[in-house]
Amino acid sequence: MITIDNYLDNHYIHRSNWLRAAVLGANDGIISVSSLAIGIAAASTTREPIVLATVAGLVAGALSMAAGEYVSVSSQTDTEKADIKREIQELKEMPENELNILAQIYERRGLKKETAMKVAIELSEKDALAAHIRDELGINEINQANPIQAAIASGTAFTAGGLLPLIVILFAPVIGIEYWLYNFTIISLITLGIVAAKTGGSSIKKAILRITVWGTIAMLLSALVGYIFGVKI
pLDDT by residue (tens digit) across 124-138? Predict the structure, then answer.
């Protein structure tokens, strides 16, 4: 027998929060660290400055991604909590008004006026606050923010992504290392696009296209800056 829980588990939307943070972190790790390394490599004839800049960029980027994700998602959580607190107060002070608001929401979604009011009454009798949080505020278990989860996913993914160009820098020849970095980064981005698309159930072609196009632009501009403004070190 198929239950609602089993049915929902077959959909991809439950993965959206952590998947977004993980893909963003890995993508940023690969592109930003590779771009930084390419920019330094374009102005350097030795490996040491490239390695130093790459490691520094990797550490700073991972911490920045984790902190930024935590702060932004925490702000979203604070807003949600404030709205819920306000909703609790309104349910105490104006229960009839809140019931009418709930009924109007269901009516706008296509229910007849009488049916909408009946649904609003039944849901309010069971759990009025839950009904308003879900249907009036639009907050549910799927899109509810989780700062710790988002920060860990983003920071870890950035580190994993940033380690890939670092490996290239440690072992590839210094002469022409920009081309090694570019080719390896494109392969990594294509792989990331495929994994993200399959995990999220989206189009693989679209995922690969957008991730490689923007990655290429970032690396080309970084290399250009290195060539134009760099002093050979």
Answer: 888 888 888 888 888
**Cα 152 off chain centre by:** 12
- DSSP-derived letter for residue 61 is H
Residues 6+ apart with CB under 8 A from 112: none
What is the C-alpha to C-alpha distance for residues 188 and 221, in angstroms, rounded to an integer? 19
Q: What angle do CA 147, 152, 158 make, to 5 degrees?
A: 125
Q: Measure the CA–CA gap between 195 and 208, rounded to whole angstroms.
A: 10
Q: Write the DSSP symbol of residue 109.
A: T
DSSP state letters, 163-229: HHHHHHHHHS-STTHHHHHHHHHHHHHHHHHHHHHHHHT--HHHHHHHHHHHHHHHHHHHHHHHHHH
3-state SS class at 151:
helix
- DSSP letter for 14, please: G
Reference 132, options 94, 167, 173; nearest CA is: 94
Distance between CA atoms of residues 51 and 37, nearest Å: 8
Q: How far apart are CA 160 and CA 27, in angstroms?
A: 10
What lies within 8 Å, CB to CB, of 113 at 6+ separation is 103, 107
pLDDT in tens, 9-32: 444 444 555 566 677 788 888 888
d(CA 210, CA 1): 41
Section 112-122 average pLDDT:
91
